[in-house]
Structure formats: structure tokens, C-alpha cells
Specification:
single chain, Rieske Iron-sulfur Protein, alpha+beta, nine-stranded antiparallel beta sheet
């Protein structure tokens, strides 16, 4: 499935963000993940639960049900399923049908995020989630803002490629991102490790702009800025980076934009954005400014990738794809993602032998 050369659109042996912690409470929350309806809620003790969202009795959406204690009750015929997914009660009989059970998804909470595992339960290792602490989440010495979750009518890989090629900032975001007009001309390096791939840009001697002047009131002259795009897996891409005083080389601070992507289905995705900064943690107005900027910038990216999705869905004759040198990082990530998906398919094939 474009832009990948494999049919399966996404890996399943993978952690994805299902929701913000603040979204999940004592009401049933519906969210489709990898094409599957999922419901989320909290037990009376506050533990988060994720279950398959379709009642196995007559396929009624459990999101239209309600909680009874720690169980979810189907709103159609009253079948009741516990937090472990097992059927506990059928109003019309004394026992429960054999094998009456919902899929219960492994999950854990970290840094205000609920992570859900879509693969084999025995492989659900929270250690596979990228190191959020190093990015600024879940720590007292950084400030973090959670932006509203958005569902986008486009495949998640289009957003991955949008984020890995920040030259689009010069054109799509020319009026919304300060200094954005300079990004396309900055040379690119690609840095690869086993765990990540970073498309690295280093803006040198940039003139002071209104955003940076607000963030660092004492800064009077030009600055250096890192425009990184770091792929940490299909679930998380970091953009942003460090800023320095050009004259002294002194670090001013680090601003990370953490893009958390979860496929809703083959051509839809849930998009969570967290901004994290190492400076001005006692200045909430800086966070309010980031959220306000995001409310202007994010729709521009969404409009672009939804337009591409519409073209891909149109069945029009597609031109032969061309790439520029700046696309090297995104093309390498395509290969990484294809290898991850293929390795899962090969593992399933070996298991079935």
C-alpha cells in the first residue's frame, strides 16, 4: 500500500498511543485502532482497560453500552464483560456461553499517554516504547503541553513523510512558523542508528524572530537552531531541537515537538501532538503560545496529506514517482517500515509451519 511496497499497511507487533490519560475515565471511550473498534475505560480503582469494541452476541457496538462496576454491559441484550474480557453475565440465562470473551489489549500508562499493544500479548514489552523521558515527557524539569487529538482522513505513512521532509515548512507553513521560509535551503544530513533515523538540519546565524524573542527575552542577536526530524518508530516522530546563541555558542534551550501517530485504519489516523521544552517551565504563557500555534499549523499539514489521500483514492493514472536528495531519510524509513512488516509476516509463516 503506497508509499510502501507491502500489502499490509502497518505493523501489528507494535505499541500505539490509544488515548491521552485524561480522555479515559468512567465513561466508555470508543477508538478505532488498526481497523478494529476498541473501547477504553477505567475500573473503579482507576486502572485503564482496553477491550475489543464489538459484542460477540449480535455485533452491537459496546461503545453504546455502559459500565456496571468494572464490567461493560452491552446496550442491546445486556451481556456483561469484565475488565479481562470474559463474559460475566447473560440476563436471559443462568450461565454464560462457552468461549464468550472479548479481546483484552495489553496497555500501560506513561507521561499522560495510554499505550496499547496490537500484537501477540506475550510480546507486549513496555521497554519497546521509545524513551519518552529523554524527549522531555514525564519529568519535572521540562514543560509539556498536550494538544487536542485529531482524526485525519489519510494513511499514517503520509504524515510520516510529511514530518520527515521539513522543507515543506517553507511553503505550507510560510506564514505560521517563524523562520520557516529558510528551512528548505538548509543542507540535510541523515543520521541512522538501530533505534532511530534523524533527518538533520542546522540553521546557522538566523536572525532573531518574534517567537524566539518571546521565548528568550534576553536574546538580542542571531541564533543557531536545529531543525531535526527523528523517526523513532511508526508511532512517534520528534521534530524541533536545540537553540543556541550564535555569538557564544551557549545553549538557550531545547524545544521538541512529539508527533504520536496511530492508524485508525488503512486510510485514517489518530494524531496526538505533545510539545516539550527545557526552558521557561515556570512561564505557562509559552505553553499557551505553543498550543495556539499548533491550532494554526496542524490544519495546514492535515489539509496537505488529506489532499494526497484523495488523489490516491481517485484511481487516477499516477505519474511515475520522483524523489529529491532531501527525500533520502523518508525513503530509508519506508524501507525500515517495510522490513518491520515483512519480519512480522515471516514470523507468522514460521509459526504456522
Amino acid at each position: 500500500m503506497y508509499p510502501l511496497s507491502v500489502d499490509q499497511p502497518y505493523p501489528r507487533e507494535q505499541w500505539w498511543v490509544a488515548a491521552y490519560s485524561s480522555e479515559v475515565g468512567r465513561d466508555v471511550l470508543a477508538r478505532d485502532i488498526l481497523g478494529e473498534p476498541v473501547i477504553l475505560y477505567r475500573t473503579e480503582a482507576g486502572e485503564a482497560v482496553a477491550l475489543a469494541g464489538i459484542c460477540p452476541h449480535r455485533a452491537f457496538p459496546l461503545s453504546k453500552g455502559c459500565l456496571v462496576g468494572d464490567a461493560v454491559q452491552c446496550g442491546y441484550h445486556g451481556f456483561r464483560f469484565g475488565a479481562d474480557g470474559k463474559c460475566q453475565h447473560v440476563p436471559s440465562q443462568t450461565g454464560v456461553p462457552q468461549n464468550a470473551q472479548l479481546r483484552a489489549y495489553p496497555l500501560f500508562e506513561q507521561a499522560g499517554l495510554i499505550w496499547l499493544w496490537t500484537g501477540s500479548p506475550g510480546r507486549a514489552d513496555p521497554g519497546l516504547v521509545p524513551d519518552l523521558h529523554s524527549l522531555g515527557l514525564g519529568r519535572d524539569d521540562w514543560a509539556v503541553e498536550q494538544h487536542p487529538v485529531v482524526t485525519v482522513a489519510a494513511r499514517y505513512t503520509l504524515l510520516i513523510e510529511n514530518l520527515l521532509d521539513l522543507s515543506h515548512v517553507t511553503f505550507i507553513h510560510h506564514s505560521t512558523i517563524p523562520a520557516g521560509e529558510k528551512v528548505a535551503a538548509i543542507p540535510v544530513d541523515v543520521i541512522e542508528t538501530e533505534a532511530s533515523l534523524t533527518v538533520q538540519r542546522r540553521g546557522e546565524n538566523l536572525p532573531l524572530n518574534p517567537l524566539l524573542a518571546t521565548q528568550f527575552p534576553g536574546q538580542l542577536g542571531p541564533f543557531h537552531q536545529h531543525f531535526d526530524a527523528e523517526y523513532l518508530g511508526p508511532c512517534l516522530i520528534r521534530t524541533g531541537g536545540a537553540m543556541y546563541d550564535a555569538a557564544s555558542g551557549k545553549l538557550l534551550g531545547v524545544q521538541n515537538y512529539l508527533h504520536l501517530l496511530t492508524p485508525a485504519g488503512p486510510s485514517r489516523l489518530h494524531y496526538f501532538v505533545n510539545t516539550a521544552r527545557s526552558f521557561g517551565i515556570d512561564r505557562p504563557e509559552l505553553g499557551e503560545m505553543q498550543v495556539a500555534m499548533g491550532s494554526r499549523i496542524q490544519p495546514e499539514d492535515i489539509e496537505a496529506i488529506e489532499a494526497i489521500e484523495q488523489v490516491l483514492q481517485s484511481r487516477a493514472t499516477m505519474p511515475r514517482e520522483i524523489s529529491a536528495r532531501v527525500d533520502t531519510g523518508a525513503l530509508k524509513v519506508r524501507r525500515r517500515l517495510e522490513m518491520q512488516i515483512r519480519s512480522e509476516s515471516q514470523g507468522v509463516a514460521r509459526h504456522g509451519e
